[in-house]
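Is this the right way to post structure tokens for a design question? Let me know if I should format differently. Anyway, here goes:
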């Protein structure tokens, strides 16, 4: 089965799964209660700290979105696994088909050899019959030196010696005929043996054909099973994506409510007490390339304080605001390159350096925990793509790991 056929089947399976996706989306709407914002404004109005109510809801949505992204990534891995398995199955099917084609060539060749042998046997039998008839006729009426009958030879010889000489000559001719008949018979038998061998080979190849066709059917059945399972995985992933879209829309709505509240009542910038990791998965704590503390500087070679943590990541990876706050500055800082600084209140600020480019926020804008403020790069004094992340308390740097969740 060709790749084009596989793609066609995959599209058919996906189309068959659309109803499942639609039904699943209906279920997701019912189960995605975390995205339901009805009553949030009333709850905030009744709360002693409306802003905290909004922020709690926002964090809840972000947690659920993180879980959904993990589920989507897991389903993507499952789908990739099925794609790899289907590729292996198709490779095996191509190998089996190649074997079947080769076997068919062998069968066709054997049939051609058998047909040729049958023609040669028929020709040999025809020649043998002609030679046998000729010999029998010679025994009845032998012609020597013209139209002289066997009796004429006996009665018209002048002496017994002449008779013996003529008889010996006739015997020699008949012996030659018998020898020729024996040779033709041997030739016919050899051809018959070759034909039998070809027939045996053809029969064995036909048995192999049945075996390979059974294998082909098994592979096709396995292929269909894997494609059904992959279709189910795609349906599940699409359902998670539908849920994620709902949560993202709800998160945007809550963000708008928070900004509206801050615009109406002002922002005391009270630090919320925790920070999220400023990069998405998989760029977690295992990707810290240079921790906070004294170190030998990789460019200058000086032994000096490293005022933040360096987190390795691919260029272009989104950088998140570690907590709610107000943008202090967006721009170039010598050594740091493209840098964003955020005030989180209570004297706590964060710094994000070496960005390739900035997000959509300008200085003075309110950002929420998890907002994308820029993208990983290697601007400024940098040895490669990474995020340099700092936490400062009343202007003094401190170990960011004490604040990061």
């Amino acid at each position: 089965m060709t790749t084009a056929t596989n793609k066609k089947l995959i599209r058919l399976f996906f189309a068959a799964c659309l109803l499942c996706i639609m039904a699943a989306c209906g279920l997701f709407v019912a189960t995605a209660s975390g995205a339901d914002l009805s009553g949030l404004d009333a709850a905030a109005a009744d709360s002693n700290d409306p802003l905290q109510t909004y922020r709690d809801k926002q964090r809840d949505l972000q947690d659920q979105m993180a879980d959904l992204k993990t589920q989507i990534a897991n389903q993507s891995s499952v789908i990739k696994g099925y794609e790899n398995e289907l590729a292996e199955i198709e490779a095996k099917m191509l190998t089996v088909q190649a074997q079947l084609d080769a076997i068919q060539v062998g069968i066709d060749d054997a049939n051609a050899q058998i047909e040729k042998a049958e023609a040669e046997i028929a020709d040999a039998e025809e020649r043998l019959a002609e030679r046998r008839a000729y010999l029998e006729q010679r025994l009845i009426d032998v012609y020597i030196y013209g139209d002289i009958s066997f009796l004429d030879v006996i009665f018209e010889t002048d002496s017994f010696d002449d008779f013996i000489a003529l008889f010996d000559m006739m015997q020699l001719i008949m012996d030659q005929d018998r020898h020729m008949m024996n040779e033709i018979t041997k030739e016919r038998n050899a051809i018959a043996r070759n034909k039998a061998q070809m027939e045996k080979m053809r029969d064995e190849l036909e048995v192999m054909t049945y075996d390979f066709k059974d294998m082909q059917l098994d592979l096709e059945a396995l292929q269909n099973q894997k494609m059904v399972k992959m279709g189910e995985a795609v349906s599940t992933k699409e359902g998670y994506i539908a849920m994620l879209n709902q949560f993202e829309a709800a998160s945007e709505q809550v963000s708008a409510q928070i900004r509206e509240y801050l615009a109406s009542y002002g922002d005391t910038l009270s630090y919320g007490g925790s920070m999220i990791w400023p990069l998405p998965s998989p760029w977690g704590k295992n990707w810290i390339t240079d921790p906070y503390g004294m170190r030998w500087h990789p460019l200058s070679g000086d032994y000096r304080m490293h005022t933040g943590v360096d987190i390795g990541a691919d260029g272009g990876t989104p950088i998140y605001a570690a907590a709610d706050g107000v943008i202090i500055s967006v721009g170039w800082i010598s050594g740091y390159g493209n840098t964003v600084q955020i005030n989180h209140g209570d004297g706590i600020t964060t710094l994000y350096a070496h960005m390739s480019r900035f997000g959509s926020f300008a200085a003075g804008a309110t950002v929420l925990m998890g907002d994308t403020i820029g993208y990983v790069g290697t601007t400024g004094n940098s040895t490669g793509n990474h995020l340099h992340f700092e936490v400062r308390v009343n202007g003094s740097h401190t170990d960011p790991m004490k604040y990061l969740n």
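Format looks fine. Someone answered above. Worth noting: The two ends are 51 Å apart (CA to CA). The chain has two domains: 1-266, 285-402.
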